[in-house]
Amino acid sequence: MTKWLKEPLLHFLLLGALIFAVNHWMNGSEGNDGNRIVVSLSQQENLASTFARTWQRPPSETELNSLIVDFIREEIAYRESQAMELDRDDIVIRRRLRQKLEMLAEDVASLAPPTAEAVRTYFVDNAEKFRKPAVLSIRQIYFRDDDDSKAVHESAVKLLQQLQRDESSVDTVVAGDPSLLPRELENVSVTELDSVFGIGFADALSAIDVGSWGGPIASGFGIHLVKVENRVESRLPEFESVSDYVSRELLAMRRQQTIDALYTRLAENYAIAIEASLEILPKAASGSTP
Asked: Are residues 99 and 209 in the same domain?
């Protein structure tokens, strides 16, 4: 059975069946009696089980009858709303229907979990996607530069020189200006550093040797003197340590491929035209030629 689930032909047939089901649902069935509503035993059992999950007890006869009446009203409202085309141009309904369609396609892709060999191959082919970012431990001294940037910069450089000569002569806990920024950060990724101090801050630290003070480094808050206490360079993880994550990523990619294939196939049933007005297009740069 597992071998059959891995066969591309089976996936193709399932996708074709899904497309057929979608078309059948969209176009309706010629033999369908639109005036007949049947509340089957399975539907009643579903109503009762849903009630039981919510209230932790089965419904009484009166409560079940009320659920059935509500189900019938919901079905009537649904059919009448469709007949009146109330679902047209409703963005909430459009999005919900799209979600349901794509969930069907994802279910098809999920029938065959990726094999261990496929997961390892995906890891090798997409190694950079799973690379661990560099991790640093730092200490920083902050200077506010919104009044006199030149004078503040000179003060920062002077303090840096003192730190480099004799760090013990400086009380780094109170040096600089007070702020809500952390003075010390341990084992944080370059991404986390950028989220705290701003994009590009982590890159600027690459010029500072471990155990040394450097700077001044500018951020969106001001300028900083930074000591890199420790640095673990970016690295590729061992496959075994991330295999579960890689498997999920591969399955997510296959699901997206299945959705893309579904839309490509369904789009063949439509003549698609995209109208554009010159007023909504980007303006040509000054002096450019068409």
From this structure: no
For 171-191, how does the pLDDT look when each residue is reduced to its tens digit (9 = 90+)? 988 999 998 999 999 999 999
Residues 55 and 145 grouped into a single domain: no
On whether both 186 and 225 belong to a single domain, the answer is yes
- Write the pLDDT tens digit of every residue in 226-285: 999 999 998 899 999 999 999 999 999 999 988 898 888 888 888 877 676 666 555 655
Q: Which domain does 51 fall in, by range?
A: 33-88
Q: What is the CATH number of the domain that holds 189?
A: 3.10.50.40
In sequence order, the 6+-apart residues with CB closer than 8 A to the CB of 177 are: 142, 143, 144, 222
Residues 149 and 180 in one domain: yes
Residue 233, φ and ψ in degrees, nearest 5? -65, 160
**How many domains would you assign to the chain?**
3
